[in-house]
Design goal:
Blueprint: H1 4-7, E1 10-13, H2 21-30, E2 40-46, H3 53-61, E3 81-85, E4 92-98, H4 112-124, E5 127-133, H5 145-158, E6 164-171, H6 178-195, E7 211-217, H7 225-237, H8 261-274, H9 283-304, H10 307-316, H11 324-342, H12 348-393, H13 398-420, H14 430-477, H15 482-505, H16 512-539, H17 541-554, H18 570-587, H19 600-609, H20 620-626, H21 646-678, H22 684-693, H23 695-703, H24 705-725, H25 727-730, H26 735-762, H27 773-792, E8 796-799, E9 802-805
Parallel strand pairs: 2-4, 2-5, 5-6, 6-7
Antiparallel strand pairs: 1-3, 3-4, 8-9
Helix pairs in contact: 3-7, 4-5, 4-8, 5-6, 9-11, 9-12, 11-12, 12-13, 12-14, 13-14, 14-15, 14-16, 15-16, 17-18, 17-21, 18-19, 18-21, 24-27
Keywords: Coiled coil, Endoplasmic reticulum, GTP-binding, Hydrolase, Membrane, Nucleotide-binding, Transmembrane, Transmembrane helix
Pfam family, one: Sey1_3HB
Enzyme class: hydrolase
Amino acid sequence: MDNDAGCCSTQLIDGDGTFNVTGLEKFIKEVKMGECGLSYAVVSIMGPQSSGKSTLLNHLFGTNFREMDAFRGRSQTTKGIWMARCVGIEPTTIVMDLEGTDGRERGEDDTAFEKQSALFALAVSDIVLINMWCHDIGREQAANKPLLKTVFQVMMRLFSPRKTTLVFVIRDKTRTPLEALEPVLREDIQKIWDAVPKPHAHKETPLSEFFNVEVVALSSYEEKEEQFKQQVADLRKRFFHSINPGGLAGDRRGVVPASGFSFSAQQIWKVIKENKDLDLPAHKVMVATVRCEEIAYERYNDFVQNQEWLQLEEASQSGPVPGFGKRLSLIIRNCLSDYDSEAVYFDEGVRTAKRKHLEERLLQLVQPAFQSILGHLRSETLDKFKEAFEKALNGEGFAAAAHSCKQRFVNLFDEGCADAVIEQANWDTLKARSKLVRDLDEYIASVRAAKLAELTSHYEAKLNEALSGPVEALLDSASDETWPSIRKLLRRESQSAVSGLASDLSGFDLDEQTKDKMLAKLEDYARSVVEAKARDEAGRILIRMKDRFTTLFSHDADSMPRVWTGKEDIKSITKFARSASLKLLSVLAVVRLDDEPDDIDKTLSLALVEHKSSSSSTSENSLALSDPLASSSWDKVPSSKTLITPVQCRSLWRQFQMETEYTVSQAIAAQEASRRSNNWMPPGWAIAAMLILGFNEFMTLLRNPLYLAVLFVGFLVSKALWVQMDISNEFRHGILPGILSLSTRFLPTVMNMLRKLAEEGNRPASQTNAPPVSNTIQGASRSNSSVSSSGSSRVTVVENGTEYSSSSKEE
């Protein structure tokens, strides 16, 4: 393509190393580079001579660099460094075409310019294309490794490193996939970087701090031209907006403004020209390096394809291989011997270094198989140990079985390691042995912990079974002997469990401190069972107290249900039942496992049963001071042993009294009902008078049943009014207030009843299931009659100055 006007190609540095200052200034003016500020990019390309660098740039950026004419032979085309502007790419992008390396025109002794130009490209470029043949990957000289190593080293010393993107362009790609080629290139560049001596400030600086590495592959231009052009077109897209975040040079640093590019480039070239570290090594060393590397590469490939090695590698994946170390050592020894026979006449220093490198590569190749063998040995030994250890536990003590089995299988592992050791490798199997010992110890510890936990759980279960039921029964009995009996039970069961556990622990070879700790923990568990049961019972204290009260109040001394005939002394029965419930409260107030006396029972009795009501003149402060239940803790009792505080006792007792008052009221009502049921008939003379004086009216009702119906309806209406207006309750406040209240409520009540009757009459029969009006009135009468009777009744019993009353509607 003809892009002369757009690319403005110019020779920046000639073949003798002379910097074209005038040409650069003219180029900057033509492309208006000074107006770009920081919005520009510099791309350069380097690689072997006649590798198609100029051809690639012309297709990639639309430049017009001179290309080699293949029909005239292969020779040097580009001399020095040329630069041009990329056509159609934004932002402004400048590309530099470097003279090819390894050319016959300069010869083998004049490579200083190659290194100088490469160093210059890295120093000024944002992106450096490294052009290389696909078949040169893995080689030393052809892949530019020595050149890059020297350039990296000098660049680190001469300039402040900037962030540069290295794009390896693989030409004439073969069938080898790019995924297999890219790791090799990345590994090579990383090794070069690691081997380069660096200033102290960058000793630990990673390659990624100064270089981004990209790899692309292109097909052959001569054999697959269309495919080559399509791949170049795809690569060209990546150079659009290359300096934006995410672009090829998106994270570049140390950019020089475009107006200062000319001066910066001149100074960099001056520093490079004055440096003396870019000299070529001796020809003999170079030849030895290249040839020894080729021999080592061939021997390495022979080893990789060796069938015996492949069989050993495959077998090592499934388990230990007998004689692995000896067989593999022989293969490696033969490989190194072949290398020595071929490289014997080359430089000794180079030969030795490359032999060592070959040996390292071979050992690096076989190390995974060796580690796999060790892993299988360790896993197999551990599995066998587990099986043998489990069997040994059935015939001897834990400690003896663990020691004998561990020693036996560690020795077995050592024998397996000795068989797998490779002669050429100085690999230590101590790490694998230590891991095995650690695994064995961990397994022994886990089995020990499981066995101890099993023993502990067994004795804890026995304690729980031996203590829970009896303790609950003793607490439910609530007598003065409750806690002494519990303490006796706890001592007996704890001593039995501790003795059994101590006997079982003798075979574990535990130190005395651990053993004492476990026994103490078991004793603490026994106490915790009792305390937990006591706390559970204390949490249900109110229910327990009510159940005890109901049982004692509703049953006689023979446990038969009481029949309230009116002859029973309810006051004495109530006092007895409540005293028994109070005893239950005092027993469950605190945990008494330490046999320390307390006066809680006496305090509760004095404060809740025998305490007289204070006079109305006594102040609240004096009452609080004289009340032993005003405190939140018991005297001489630790808070950790307190189940129910004094304040809670008072609150529970009040709630208990309120909830049992109804039972007492029912009993009193039952007595009253029993008395009334015995005297419900009027006297005989009254019955005779009613029969004589009411004979005529009775006969009148029999002759005319209509009167009877009218009287019945009147009775129902009167009863309904009585219930609706609650007449009996209204007159409890006095006759005059009752009459006034009824006079204001009479008419609204009658109207309300008539409205309800009208609504019932208007409702269709299919939509109502209501009973007849008479039944409704009768039901309401019966219901409200019972409510009124229960609401208006009031029974009072006075016990020790305390009044117990049944519920009333007014209350």
